[in-house]
């Protein structure tokens, strides 16, 4: 990982690329100053090469109407703010050139053919041959301007289903001119763009092509076409080839937490046997041992990590110092990064709220250190304790249970969410490193705090499950999700889950999957229909494996409508697909009556029904745990409430951790 990579005209200091991420700062007023701080911190943290978020070469290629493009000399200045910051810190940076094609969220979109994308509301216009040629020139012009702005190179986005990918694949290219029909014609635009870019920037400039090596859609590229295009790109003057996996419209997860680590490095390894230029592996690479395995085994020459460098800008330096336990690991949740991006919000990170807020959220030494008591070692309490101690405050963290983590201890039990345990490992390290006094198995009372002589109290006691007061619900066969996930109660073979929010979906996954496919890559590939032998177009199996349900499960929702609408924008579809796989029956508009030996009595759309269940798991929301509040208010000390104790809406670790960080910055 730490070995330099010689490119002939320049040398990269190590094998780690910070992959392209659009933060939203690109469009904010003063955003390029913030973007410079964001990138600079990652350079100081040791990354070898940075690739920016996608910048369009022209107006029609923008992802959104207000998205950034680089087409004119007057736009160069703001980019120099970024490149200067990176170079002053000793780093290198490439600008990604991305034309959205039919993925654009505006009515001016264009594409190879007039075919609407399933994930955007607008139907694109088919590009004329003249527009295609102008777009090729626009890529070259943007690359020249990027060079003028001080970038060390460009990455041409040719994957994930964007414009160039749309030309390359027959599923989206129905043209009959020189840019359609056979593969030579369909791939012509990609080669022409690389040649035009190389002509405009000269030889001593990094040109990366992000090649879709595995489309994961019907009528995607064949393996032979991927190899042929890679060889032609090499001849056209590409410096590096980056791995692209899956179109955005593909119904196969590629980066979510349930995807096995390094699940797609095999395809990079397969192509590495066909070309001589360096290849970059991508997707779900989040710890040093994963990187070392990929590089040492010869699967790739470099690795690209995007979200892991949101989570921890010092990733490379910590790896170099053999401090893996200190790394704030990306858990692949998407909640604060991609979910924000697709809602046109600034991207950040659930486990690192400073990401993209480097100029706004900082923890300078406190002028007057205080003695602080934190009640509850869940996400909010842990985050506050670490950041406050970092500022020099003397912090004692009280936890009634035997371990830190709160709701994270429940989340890590869900098959496919094993990564959540990494966050707990990180916080254990940080609490010890910053000398937070951790008092486990210690229920807090006002008397205890009075004896402790604290200056201020932070209540981070989290939530308690909401109870339903219905006939028969005092039965031992009616249990809470916390009892189930903590192993305090068991579920039978036929289970009704009351509540279809995120917790309900997690419980259905927990009960439906005996052994996590995330930890069994071969099973995971079969489940999602991925052909690792690459015999089929797009890398898809002709048939997916059938799995027998572990239990008979019902997921019930009081309100009408499709369950799961409030789930994450980029991951909700995966959770819904898993329920279908596990044979879960979902019911909406349910009124709950009572539970007895026959089962759970309900009314659905005015009709009475009995579900023949032996267990009911209640996931009907939660309430703030404010049992201690009256006693704490009597202490007469400044009192702050954060996390679930402050707001018990749908469990939100992102908000809880940010709550803790923002209070720690102010206190």
From TrEMBL:
Residues 2-320 form the NADH:flavin oxidoreductase/NADH oxidase N-terminal domain. In the N-terminal section; belongs to the NADH:flavin oxidoreductase/NADH oxidase family. It comes from Shewanella dokdonensis. Residues 371-639 form the FAD/NAD(P)-binding domain. Keywords: Flavoprotein, FMN, Iron, Iron-sulfur, Metal-binding, Oxidoreductase. Its cofactor is [4Fe-4S] cluster; FMN. The keyword Nucleus does not apply. CDD domains: DCR_FMN. This is NADPH-dependent 2,4-dienoyl-CoA reductase. InterPro entries: Aldolase_TIM, FAD/NAD-bd_sf, FAD/NAD-binding_dom, NADH:flavin_oxidoreductase, OxRdtase_FMN_N.
